[in-house]
Design a protein that fits this description.
By secondary structure, this protein is an alpha/beta fold. It folds into two domains: about 140 residues, 3-Layer(aba) Sandwich (Rossmann fold), CATH 3.40.50; about 170 residues, Nitrogenase molybdenum iron protein domain (Rossmann fold, 3-Layer(aba) Sandwich). Helix content is about 45%, strand content about 15%. The protein is built from 15 helices and twelve strands. Strands 7, 8, 9, 10, 11 and 12 form a six-stranded mixed sheet that branches. Strands 4-3-5-6 form a four-stranded parallel sheet, with helices on both faces. A two-stranded antiparallel ribbon has the order 1-2. Helix 3 packs across helix 7 and helix 7 runs antiparallel to helix 8. It is globular, with a radius of gyration of 25 Å.
């Protein structure tokens, strides 16, 4: 072959490689026609239409740790490529030992994970609970779908499970889990609807005198358990109240979140509160916790509702919480808790 001909062939090959590489880089930012045909529109929990791939293989939940658990509920945990430090706890390591191999991107102080950190994980879908318009635009331009979740009530939690199931092509599994949830809630309602005098509940969150109003998840949890949140009239998230409020409300049961500084002895040892019915009768309880606290908007809150209903109306509801504990984690996470774990959670003071 003549030198000029050989040079022309080599040049053509190099140009072809460069063009193919460029096309590949372009595909990450601007999907080709066949990819667009494989995409579909879903509506997230803020009402936004979001384009997601027909088949989602890589999911990042680092911006909203609760979404990690929803991925487990629909049996799509193998698609996780980015999670939060909150997901990397001892119980999750028992449930899914491979979780230790999933990347945990870092956050800069007081801000979200950067687009650069997200891009390193190459997710098809990112779940979030807040809207960062600039970040969302950047991710959209890169062909990454951002899906907003809002799980601030048991009904919303079930809708979130169905949405994640739809995105992950696990609709039947999501429906099965939601049916399990709805069955437990319907049972509680069928039992507590017979109660004429519903018991009053005070929830202590960040502190003894920090409580949840009507727009907090804990208000829904108390209501589903058949109780009445004494702070229901308050709005705006966590509210600080006075000792006089608590004395006037005179709750039948005091329920304490595990993430604040209040404890059972905080109420029992406070001389100002000894006339309150819940304290006189010893009906002051810490929330239970396993993967996380049972009173926050996570899948485990179903157990929190069942446990609280039992405390409020033991003669009407009658859940066997040891059996329900095992049933929940086997049904939702495919994991059978050890006896010592069950006892340490349910018998904790």
């Amino acid at each position: 072959m003549r030198p000029k001909a050989r040079y022309a062939l080599i040049l053509a090959a190099v140009i072809t490689v460069v063009l193919v590489a460029a096309a590949g880089a372009t595909m990450l930012v601007h999907p080709t026609a066949p990819e667009r045909e494989r995409a579909r529109l879903i509506r997230d929990m803020k009402g936004n239409q979001v384009t997601v791939p027909r088949d989602v293989h890589r999911v990042m939940t680092s911006l909203y740790p609760i979404a990690t658990q929803l991925m487990f509920l629909v049996q799509a945990e193998d698609a996780l490529v980015g999670i939060s430090t909150y997901d990397m706890n001892d119980v999750m390591k028992k449930i899914y030992p491979d979780i230790v191999h999933i990347p945990v991107p870092g956050r800069s102080a007081g801000s979200d994970i950067t687009v650069e950190e997200i891009l390193k994980l190459q997710p098809d879908v990112v779940f979030c609970c807040t809207r960062n318009a600039q970040q969302n635009r950047a991710l959209k331009e890169l062909g990454i779908s951002t899906v907003y979740l809002n799980l601030e009530s048991p009904e919303a939690l079930m809708r979130g499970i169905l949405l994640v199931g739809d995105i992950m092509n696990k609709k039947e599994r999501a429906k099965f889990v939601v049916s399990y949830y709805q069955g437990k809630l319907d049972y509680i309602r069928s039992r507590t609807s017979r109660v004429k005098n519903r018991k009053k509940v005070y929830f202590a969150g960040p502190s003894m005198l920090g409580t949840a109003g009507a727009d907090c998840y804990q208000d829904s949890l108390i209501g589903y358990a058949g109780g009445v949140n004494v702070a229901h009239a308050l709005k705006g998230g966590w509210n600080t109240i006075s000792v006089e409020h608590l004395l006037e409300w005179n709750p039948d049961l005091i329920f304490i979140g595990t993430y604040g500084n209040a404890r059972v002895k905080s109420f029992a040892n406070d001389s100002r509160l000894q006339d309150i019915s819940a304290i006189r009768k010893g009906n002051v309880f810490m929330s239970r916790t396993y993967i996380g606290s049972w009173d926050v908007p996570t899948p485990e809150s179903l157990l929190g509702i069942m446990w609280l209903a039992n405390k409020l109306y033991p003669h009407d509801v009658r859940f066997d919480m040891k059996k329900e504990f095992v049933s929940f984690y086997e049904t939702c996470f495919g994991y059978t808790p050890q006896e010592q774990d069950i006892l340490s959670v349910l018998e904790k003071q």
